[in-house]
Design a protein that fits this description.
- The radius of gyration is 20 Å and the shape is globular.
- It has one domain: Growth Hormone, Chain: A (Up-down Bundle), CATH 1.20.1250.20.
- Helix 14 packs antiparallel against helix 15.
- It is built from 19 helices and no strands.
Length: 413
């Protein structure tokens, strides 16, 4: 199964581990909020709309951070921007533990989002440019699976911290753990170098005395690709966040599960997510990016509707947690390599950063809309409705886009 990893060179492996660690810790910092949200609703008397806004603020600012990081990575390098973004999101997750009101947390969560979005933009294009074409889908997809590892770490921390500390302190301790990713920068500084294709492209641009800006991704030749890619990501992000941001609250307030049982149910979803990331990573190289998107988007829709609409027992809900995590997370595995392959090297960071993070910005509205709609219908049904909308959008965007599996990245074009 891991034969492909043995074929990677030393520099490829360093980049792989750096990006895997960065994305896993990114996932941990972001998902911490979903675990403390029920406690904050109780302690601060937040409405569901306010709780959704806190999740949305992070995602909206992450879209801006991802776009900026993409632009800056084309100008200053993928590795330098990656280090800055990791330090940024770690700092503001930590500072969230000192907040005492909705508005204070809204500010720190928003600023944390800048780094969260930027880390993916810089890391995905870095990994995509370093890994050889035949293994790009597997490598980027496996790294995407690091999110499940970070989510799992947050779940374990939640179960332990909330079991030994009073609620009034436990949520703060969770945010304090968010400083951990800063240690990863030491590894990146020592072992990770800029991709050769990036350095060669920069030399070629300088030799031709040409200047390119991010606006080229809106030129007639690239505009359809940019818009469709953004639409594709909007569907994936919207569906995922409509589910995961509200899932702990759904389990605790609708299904009335305890902290320990909520952690157990989420653990099944998280394990399913990890297997979904890994499976989709292999499928994207085996059957292509587009077919994998179709398979996972349609399957996600079916599982979410079963999970949120049918009057199922707790046991059946536990059983469905695995495929829920498997398909909802697996759709992301092919996005990194697909976006890398769609855009030319001179504007790859800009194009990939914009498409992914525009989609994230629109998808970020889904948690807030779920919160609003839950005032007029059951929370589970609101989650299911927006998940259906999101994955339908993803399928429609995939249809006109080209298959890019196995594409060799050229230096200039």
């Amino acid at each position: 199964m891991w034969t492909w990893f043995k074929e990677l060179g030393k520099d490829e492996r360093h980049v792989f581990w750096a990006c895997l660690g960065g994305w896993a810790l990114d996932g941990m910092d972001v998902q911490i909020y979903s675990f403390v949200m029920p406690s904050l609703i109780g302690l601060w008397k937040l409405t569901n709309t306010q709780a959704g806004m806190l999740g949305t603020a992070t995602l909206l600012l992450s879209a801006l951070g991802g776009w900026l990081a993409g632009l800056l990575s084309d100008r200053f390098g993928r590795v330098r921007v990656l280090k800055v973004t990791i330090l940024w999101y770690a700092l503001f997750t930590f500072l969230s533990g000192f907040t005492n009101s909705f508005w204070q947390l809204l500010i720190t969560r928003g600023l944390q989002g800048l780094g969260f979005g930027g880390e993916w933009a810089a890391g995905a294009v870095l990994l995509g440019e370093v890994i050889v074409a035949r293994h790009r889908g597997k490598a980027v997809g496996v790294v995407q699976g690091g999110w499940a590892l970070g989510w799992g770490a947050a779940a374990i921390a939640y179960t332990i911290v909330f079991s030994i500390l009073p609620v009034s302190w436990a949520w703060r301790a969770m945010f304090f753990l968010g400083l951990t990713p800063a240690l990863l920068v030491i590894y990146i500084q020592r072992y990770v170098r800029e991709p050769e294709v990036f350095e060669a492209t920069r030399r070629e641009v300088e030799a031709r005395q040409q200047r390119f800006t991010f606006l080229e991704i809106f030129a007639p030749s690239l505009l359809p690709t940019t818009l469709l890619a953004a639409m594709l990501v909007t569907g994936a992000q919207g569906g995922y966040y409509a589910i995961t941001i509200w899932l702990p609250t759904f389990l605790k307030t609708v299904r009335h599960l305890s902290v320990l049982n909520t952690g157990g149910y989420l653990f099944v979803v998280i394990v399913g997510s990890l297997f979904g990331y890994l499976t989709a990573a292999y499928l994207s190289d085996a059957i292509g990016r587009r077919r994998t998107f179709f398979l996972f988007a349609v399957s996600s829709t079916m599982i979410v509707l079963l999970y949120s609409y049918l009057p199922i027992s707790d046991f059946v809900m536990l059983f469905l947690g695995f495929p829920l995590g498997f398909f909802a997370s697996g759709v992301f595995s092919g996005l990194g390599p697909f976006l890398t392959e769609l855009f030319p090297s001179r504007v790859r960071g800009s194009g990939q950063g914009f498409a992914y993070n525009f989609g994230r910005a629109i998808g970020a509205l889904f948690p807030t809309m779920v919160g609003r709609l839950s005032s007029h219908m059951p929370l589970g049904q609101a989650i299911g409705l927006f998940a259906l909308l999101a994955y339908s959008l993803m399928v429609l965007a995939t249809l006109p886009l080209p298959e890019t599996r196995g594409k060799t990245l050229e230096v200039y074009n």
